Every structure is written in C-alpha cells, then in structure tokens.
Amino acid sequence: MLTDTDARALEPFIAAYEKVRNDEHWGADDLDLPFHPRRHREIWEIRRRTFQAFQQIAAPLAPGYAIDIGAGNCWMTRYLDRWGFDSIAIDVNIGSIDGLAAGKKFIDEGSKFLRIRSAMERLPFATSRVRLAASNASFHYASDFRASLAEFKRVLTPGGLIAILDTPVYENAADGERMMAERVMDFRRRYGISEEMSRKSAYLTFDMITGLAEQTNLDVQVHHVWPGWQRKYEEIRGRLAGRRVAQFPLIIFEKRSDEE
Questions:
Q1: 8 Å CB contact between 136 and 210
Q2: How high does pLDDT run on average in the chain?
Q3: Could you tell me if residue 244 is inside a domain?
Q4: What are residue 114's DSSP bridge partners?
Q5: Closest by Cα among 7, 9, 19 to 198
Q6: Which residues in 212-223 are b (16+ Cβ under 10 Å) and which e?
Q7: What are phi and psi of 77, to 5 degrees?
Q8: Residue 253 region by backbone torsions, left for phi larger than 0, else alpha for psi between -120 and 50, else beta
Q9: I want to staple 69 with a disulfide (CB 3.0 to 4.6 A). Which of 96, 112, 134, 135 is the partner?
Q10: Helical axes 4-23 vs 173-191, angle rounded to 10°
Q11: What is the model's pTM?
Q12: Residue 259 forms part of a structural domain
C-alpha cells in the first residue's frame, strides 16, 4: 500500500501520464478491450494477439491468486477473474478515466476482483502467495527492472509464473535509446514535460531479459507473437533503414518449484 508520502511523490508523474493519455484519447469509454476497441485499433490488433497467447498459458493454470500489476482501468483483471483466479488489480493511478476507479464498470457488470493502490516495487502481499503475476503494458514503468522482478518473484508460489505483456523490447539498446530521445523531444514540445518525466517509461532488450532471469534465478521463455502484417511491414522497413522498431513479445518467467 502507498504511504501518504509515496502518493504525494507520485503526483507529478500521474499528472504527466494522464495529460498524455487524455490527449491521445486512451481510456474513458474505451474499455471493452482488447477485442472491441473504439480507438487505436492498430495498436490493439497487436495487443489482442499478445493477449491471446497469454490466455493460452494463463487460463489453464490451477486456481489461486493472480495479480494484475499496473492494471490501469482493469480490463485484463476481469479476464483473470473469468479464468477462475482470485484476482487483484494493482496500480498507482486511481483515476476514473484510466486508473483503478474505471474498473468499477467491470465490477458492476459482475466481475469480482480487488483494487489496491500500490507500486510494483513493493507489493502488499506475503511471500509465496500468488500463482500468477501479470504486468500488462506496465513493466517498462518500473523504476528498477531487477528489483521489481525480484519483488514479483517474492510473492509467487513455487512454480508460479510472471507474465510481461506489451512492454517494448529492442534487439539492441541503441534503437531503444533513439526511441526515448525522440519521445523526450516530442513530449517537451507538445506537453512541456521534462526529460526526467519522459524517461519514466523505458524499454527492454533481449539481452536484458536474459540477464534479469539470471540475476533473479528465474527460468524464462520469450514467445514471439505474430504482430499482424502492418506491424511486420514496419519491422522489415525499419531493418532495411537500419532503424529497428520495438517488438512486443510475451515474456514468461517461472519461479522454480524447489524455491520458497
């Protein structure tokens, strides 16, 4: 749970985040995701495919606690509930447009899940209690990737899974840094957002994923999901221009069954 001090420290980030999200028309009435988006259909086409790959892995798991870390408006939390988990949505944003308060829509429609305001680096759960920890379009906001992943692992039961969805992954850091530099300039020009705030969202590389698994003693599998023809065309065009675009694989970490 966030302390009052933690919550106050997060206010500038949440204000900047909501400014961008509102301007780009995310959230609000667009909650029937990922299958029936009203806006950003090209992006949701990619996310739908990743979600379906995640569903094939997550839905058959034995029941238990499942946490949706960085849940936003809780659209994915409701699926965890449908699949038989005791589901909990976690986010620092409690707003009604794109935060935890928006999840009331799904609860009113019959979904059953808790909503907890918490940072991903310090989860409010006892050790070895959670069967599945999913971070959907949110892990790249972690202030420390290794520390956050270690915290996810701490709350997992032996044999539990961590799923990272829709976090940008690059083949090399140079392409990721180019993306971030462009975003810094764009956000400064359009919104007056500082470089420090723009860099609150980062990226992974495939080498970083391997390194994180080794550092946290987790097994890892990277599932490359077909992104659709349009995105594939962008990837090919980027390679030809020497400018690789982000990929969005499904990353599954597993806590070994002999660990407590």
A1: no
A2: 95
A3: yes
A4: 88
A5: 19
A6: bbeebebebeee
A7: -60, -35
A8: beta
A9: 135
A10: 80
A11: 0.96
A12: no
Instruction: Taking each helix axis as running N to C, give the angle between helix 229-240 and helix 41-58, from 0 to 180 degrees, rounded to the nearest 10.
Output: 110
Going across the sheet that includes 130-136, the strands are 113-117, 86-91, 65-69, 130-136, 156-165, 250-254, 219-223
User: Pairing between strand 130-136 and 156-165?
Assistant: parallel
Provide the H-helix boundaries in the chain.
Answer: 4-23, 41-58, 77-82, 104-108, 145-155, 173-191, 195-198, 206-216, 229-240
101-140 core/surface letters (b: 16 or more CB in 10 A; e: else): ebbebbbeeebebebbbbbbeebebeeeebbbbbbbbbbb
Domain membership of residue 260 (yes or no) is no
Q: Which domain holds residue 159?
A: 4-254
Integer Cα distance of 204 and 202 in angstroms: 7
Q: What residues are paired with 149 via a beta bridge? A: none
Q: CA nearest 39: which of 51, 21, 53?
A: 21
Residue 177: C-alpha distances to residues 110, 129, 169, 173, 202 (Å): 43, 37, 12, 6, 9
Q: Nearest-CA neighbor of 166 among 58, 7, 49, 29?
A: 49
Residue 237 pLDDT grade (very low, low, confident, very high; cuts 50, 70, 90): confident
Cβ neighbours of 162 (radius 10 Å): 25
Model confidence over 159-174: pLDDT tens digits? 999 999 999 999 999 9
* Helices and strands, counts by H and E, the chain: 9, 9
Structure tokens at 56: 């094939």
Structure tokens at 69: 């870390």
Q: Give the chain's end-to-end CA distance (angstroms, integer).
A: 23
Residue 243's domain is classified under what CATH number? 3.40.50.150
Q: Is the pLDDT of residue 259 over 90?
A: no
